[in-house]
Design goal:
α1 links the parallel β1 and β2. The N and C termini lie far apart (about 35 Å). The protein has a single domain, classed as Maf protein (Alpha-Beta Complex), CATH 3.90.950. The radius of gyration is 17 Å and the shape is globular. Strands 1, 2, 3, 4, 5 and 6 form a six-stranded mixed sheet that branches. It has about 180 residues and is α/β, with parallel strands linked by helices. α1 crosses α6. Its cofactor is Mg(2+); Mn(2+). It is an enzyme of class 3 (hydrolase). Its EC number is 3.6.1.73. Keywords: Hydrolase, Magnesium, Manganese, Metal-binding, Nucleotide metabolism, Nucleotide-binding.
Length: about 180
């Protein structure tokens, strides 16, 4: 079907970060091939620190972004990705929580962990944001809107976008089989 004849599916992302918008557009384009995907990033406050620490704070940040979008905008789907860091029994790591919602359900997912150098995590505990720590350590500029820690620390074999894409893809399961996920 020509693109101009496809129905439009509107997806709002709770961020203006191009990496997050691209990940959302990629996932929704794969799931809704018969639709034109209008994917737009909008400012949506997380109401958590710029550098969330711990799984709870990180998840709540993503949920808050989606709730804000739902309260202030109309769309078919709303989604948010929130990157955080935590100290686990095996060492510090960074990860992301993703939230996808429509008017009838919400799904929460989480990315894999990326081990963080302890010196980076210590900087986060001192109040720095991971993107700024990386920019200093690797002499980059605004890496968080590019490959992020994931790209740098995996020698670009994985990227921030690929990690968000995987987490969003998995979080779509309740929308794919709603009868199996009755609330």
């Amino acid at each position: 079907m020509p693109e101009s004849h496809k129905p439009t599916l509107t997806v709002l992302v709770g961020s203006t970060n191009p990496v997050k918008i691209a990940a959302a557009k990629s996932v929704f384009s794969q799931y809704f091939v018969e639709h034109h995907i209008h994917c737009e990033g909008l400012h949506a406050p997380s109401l958590v620190p710029d550098q969330p620490l711990g799984e709870e704070e990180t998840r709540v940040g993503a949920e808050n972004r989606v709730r804000y979008l739902q309260a202030h905008h109309q769309a078919d789907f709303y989604c948010a990705m929130e990157g955080g860091a935590a100290e686990f029994s095996y060492g510090p790591a960074t990860f992301a929580f993703v939230v996808i919602a429509n008017n009838s359900r919400t799904s929460i997912g989480r990315s894999a962990n990326l081990p963080l150098p302890p010196v980076f995590y210590q900087a986060l505990l001192q109040g720095e944001e991971l993107g700024n720590v990386l920019d200093k350590a690797f002499n980059t500029v605004n890496i968080k809107q590019q490959g992020g820690a994931i790209g740098l620390l995996t020698q670009h074999l994985a990227t921030r976008e690929s990690t968000y894409t995987q987490a969003l893809t998995l979080a779509m399961a309740p929308f794919n089989f709603p009868a199996l996920y009755l609330e």
